[in-house]
Amino acid sequence: MNLKPGVSGKPPYDDQNVFARILRGEIPCRTVFEDAFALAFHDINPQAPHHVLVIPKGRYVAFADFAANASEAEIAGFIRAVGHVARLLGFEDSGYRLLANMGPDSHQEVPHLHVHIFAGRPLGPMLAG
Question: Is 51 a catalytic residue?
Fold first, then answer.
């Protein structure tokens, strides 16, 4: 298997990344939830029966960048959005997994902070190999 190398996970922010373009409305998405702080949408290449991405609306590359530079309102709003989406889609009873890739070793492909929400089947062990 030939995996693409991941992005750095560090600033500067690339305004042409796919999530920035989705936020600007240049690329459509199947929206699940949106508020002032976050956008949640279905992944175009789902890895589970339910696979939703939640992204902050601010220009953040990864969690370290977000934690250091986001306002308290942005941080609270983003975290609340992740929980709201899980409740909204009914994932709490059977369970779900959150995944956030940061940097090249994790194979982060888009240089915009995002959380994957996976649900809809038993997800197996946390890390393979």
Answer: no
pTM tops 0.90, yes or no: yes
Q: How many C-beta atoms surround the C-beta of residue 27 within 10 A?
A: 12
More confident residue, 98 or 127: 98
Residues above pLDDT 90, as percent of the chain: 83
Q: Would you tell me which CATH number, out of the four given (2.30.30.230, 3.40.50.10470, 3.30.428.10, 3.40.50.300), belongs to the domain 18-119?
A: 3.30.428.10
- The catalytically annotated residue of 50, 112, 114, 116 is 114
Query: 85, 118, 86, 88: which is closest to 100 by C-alpha?
Result: 118
